Amino acid sequence: MARRLLSPGSFVRKILVGTIRGYLGFALRTTRWTISVEPEARRVLTCEDGRTGVVAFWHEVLPLTPALWWWAEPQNPAMRLHVLISRNQDGRLIADIVGKWRIWSIAGSSDTRGKDKGGAAALRRMRARLRHGGIVAITPDGPRGPRRQAQQGATAVAALARRPIVPVGATCLSIRLKSWDKMIVPLPFGRGYLVCGAPLLLPREKEADPEHSADRLLAEAITRVTTEAEQFSGAHPGWRQEKLWLAPLSLQPSRVWSAVATALAPLLPFLLRWRQTRGKESPGRVREKMGFASRQRPPGPLVWFHAASVGEVVSILPLVEICLAKNAALTALVTTGTVTAASLLQQRLTHPRLVHQFVPLDVPRWGRRFLAHWQPQAVVFTESELWPNLIGLCHQQAVPVALVNGRMSGRSFRGWLKLRPVARRMLERFAWIAPRSEEDSERFRRLGARSLLAAGDIKTAAPALPVDPAALQAVTQQLAGRPVFLAASTHEGEEERIWQAAQSLRASFPSLLTILVPRHPERGAAVSAICGGAPRRALGQFPARTDAVWVCDTLGELGLFYRLAEVVFLGNSLPDVRNGGGGHNPFEPARLDCALATGPLTQNFHEAFAVLGKSVASVSTASDLAGWVATLLKHPDQREARAAEARAVATANTALPEELAEKVLGLLSS
């Protein structure tokens, strides 16, 4: 009867777990702690520079040890703590109590009858955690004793993983139970002491002399620091001591952000429906943005990649492809925020182990629903996609999160500076951040990011944009050798200037065709009207010899148009642009031998344009643009020199996707 009442998921068990956790948390929070840590032990306990180790303490102080984790985790929120527990009912109860504090359990010691229940498997799991940036906590005399006599578990796993053991002693205002271990039950509003001794590097095998065996040495070390905690004097020259109140790390980067998102959640479905009427949401898939999945989760490991829009999708596709090729069991879940990005993904990468969904809005309930269904083993965000609630939820569930091609524009940096505590708590939760440039790296560092990789723009390492060979051959034949000027990824407010430049150029180059590709294909009709009713590719129309402009309002064909053009202007950069500008990725046309020009508004790709230097011309007016095109058409040698210079820069970093793929796959083991 009692076993049924305390079975996993039962109401009585939930009440019991909640009551014990509530009391234990209250007692530990209201205790004034003095922590004394040997310098090298501090490095291990906070996983500094990748150090990891085993933490060992006597079973009697088990209720006090969450305080040590509360001290260590804020210093490195990316690390993970796993504690070895028994597979019996008491062990599972302990796991439920401390799980809310992100103390994860590994079950594998003996059961109540003394039989081995997965000890070998637990040993392998602990070794894996230690080798991939985690801390493992063990009570060497648990779960059945004898009291203060170390068994083989702690020394075995430390030797197997070749990691040190940090002995820990603790005490506080408390009562002791009349159990085999005389367990300490903390009382509130007292004083507590934690002592962490020097890490022990123990031999792999016991020595012949039992007086110097690894287990005996460990027992002596734990007993010594336990006695020091009980008789605390603080007499350790060189050790750092701290007096402080402790509490679990807040898992959400911003409670205000979470509360506002929750309050707005009832209104957001109406916003999504309104966006659907304007063609900005996919009919039938709107509920995906509320966390409802439209696909079943495939079995096996799954990495969630998020790329908000077209530019991020293009940059991350090579990384996704390499990860899928390196791990034959892996599924890649790729989320996007826009319909155009989803369409481009489906065109560019049709892989049986790739699943696309729309990313849920940053509402806690919707994010929990999304994560509960997909259960990713790792998450990779792209560029400037920083969503506090989603990142906090991943951290709460111990799912490692990384950021590739991390971008922090000057405008975003100034905004996050005003919310620096939120930014710091959010960025601390990333296992690592791969910044796009040194400038981005410095901005992330100033906001509180910890694990920053060497800077490198993944867009400089992407392969050339794909093309349909049949389409390329057909269009090339139809153009019949006409010179081509391409205005790529233009935005509202720019097409008027491009139309003026095209008309001006026709006087000197009567056969010149200007191909105009709006960034958002749904604007094709409006752009055609601006250009005097120019033919549109989306309607199957093709330009006659008398047509100066061809509006190519299709998606995913830039690889075709870059191969047709001799000179290319990149949009979203002229002073007249309506959305504030920022430029577009110049490496895509540079890889395909295009001579490049851009407007002055290139802040979103400042580093890329800086690297390309003078190989990219800057124009501000229709007259400037027409003059630049005319010069390069008259002087092919100049055009070829500019194109070659840009191509050399855009193809210089081909190893980066491979390196990042190894880092991403490494997250699966952490």
TrEMBL record:
Q: Which residues form the DUF374 domain?
A: 78-147
Alphabetical keyword list: Transferase
Q: Where is the 3-deoxy-D-manno-octulosonic-acid transferase N-terminal domain?
A: 285-461
Q: Does the keyword Membrane apply?
A: no
Q: What is its EC number?
A: 2.4.99.12
**Pfam family of the protein (one):** Glycos_transf_N
Q: What pathway annotation does it carry?
A: Bacterial outer membrane biogenesis; LPS core biosynthesis
Name the catalysed reactions: lipid IVA (E. coli) + CMP-3-deoxy-beta-D-manno-octulosonate = alpha-Kdo-(2->6)-lipid IVA (E. coli) + CMP + H(+)
Q: What does this protein do?
A: Involved in lipopolysaccharide (LPS) biosynthesis. Catalyzes the transfer of 3-deoxy-D-manno-octulosonate (Kdo) residue(s) from CMP-Kdo to lipid IV(A), the tetraacyldisaccharide-1,4'-bisphosphate precursor of lipid A.
Q: PANTHER family annotated for this entry?
A: 3-DEOXY-D-MANNO-OCTULOSONIC ACID TRANSFERASE, MITOCHONDRIAL-RELATED, 3-DEOXY-MANNO-OCTULOSONATE CYTIDYLYLTRANSFERASE
> Protein name, please?
3-deoxy-D-manno-octulosonic acid transferase
The organism of origin for this protein: Acetobacter farinalis
Q: What does UniProt list as this organism's lineage?
A: Bacteria, Pseudomonadati, Pseudomonadota, Alphaproteobacteria, Acetobacterales
